[in-house]
Amino acid sequence: MDDPRTDLPTDRPLADEAGVHAAYLRHGPEIYRFALRSLADPGAAQDATQETFLKAWRHADRFDPELASLRVWLFGIARNVVIDQLRHQQVRPWQRPVEPPTTSDRTPLPADTADDPAEELMTRWVVQEALARIAEPQRAAIVQVHLRQRPYAEVAAELGVPIGTLRSRVFYGLKALRATMDAMGVTA
Questions:
Q1: pLDDT tens digits, one per residue of 34-90
Q2: Rounded to whole angstroms, how far apart are CA atoms 142 and 137?
Q3: Which fold would CATH assign to domain 117-183?
Q4: Where is this region: Disordered (predicted)?
């Protein structure tokens, strides 16, 4: 029996279902690994791989073997799909999984942080260490409202608490955070 990875026509490799299947067998794992490295989420990487081959099939007439190989063309599509997914995540951060902050958490700080990478790294470490030392409900409220800049109403609904309770958690959490940072010897 012939190996489907070797019978890709060179002029119109995605013209039919068999061509798309053969292209997927040949290039799918590489595209998945690329998407996984870029998105750091296996489910999102699977979606990106599927979307890549779907777009390639729909626009098979745009493939020109004289301009680029099928692999290069597919990776161009995959790159655009990954960028679209990353932009989608930035616009809807509440759809990302919520995880408590840890010392390895890379939650972005507000844009007014220092330009010095060492200063930014130190600031991140201090904030993460201080956050780890306060109560969980207060920590979750601060992370969601201040660090991820989500609206109070959204966070309150997600946590299943009234907005007033969330505001109290943020208020007392910030007080506890300041006290913790003072105890750590951090001056603002």
A1: 999 988 888 889 999 999 999 999 999 988 888 888 999 999 999 999 998 888 877
A2: 9
A3: Arc Repressor Mutant, subunit A (1.10.10)
A4: 92-114
Q: What are phi and psi of 48, to 5 degrees?
A: -65, -40
Cα–Cα distances in angstroms (integers) from residue 139 to residues 72, 117, 131, 173, in the given order = 45, 25, 6, 7
pLDDT tens-digit profile of 96-114? 554 555 544 455 545 544 4
Question: What contacts 175, CB < 8 A, 6 or more positions away?
Answer: none
* C-alpha to C-alpha distance for 98 and 155, rounded to whole angstroms: 11
CATH code for the part of the protein at 17-91: 1.10.1740.10
> Phi/psi of residue 115, each to 5°?
-80, -20
Give the tokens for residue 75. Answer: 């990776």
What the block records as the tokens of 63 is: 């493939």
pLDDT digits (tens, 9 = 90+) for 118-170: 677 777 777 888 888 899 999 999 999 988 889 999 899 888 999 999 999 99
What is the structure's pLDDT at 115?
A: 60
State the Cα–Cα distance between residues 30 and 44, nearest whole angstrom.
15
Q: Where are the domains of the chain?
A: 17-91, 117-183
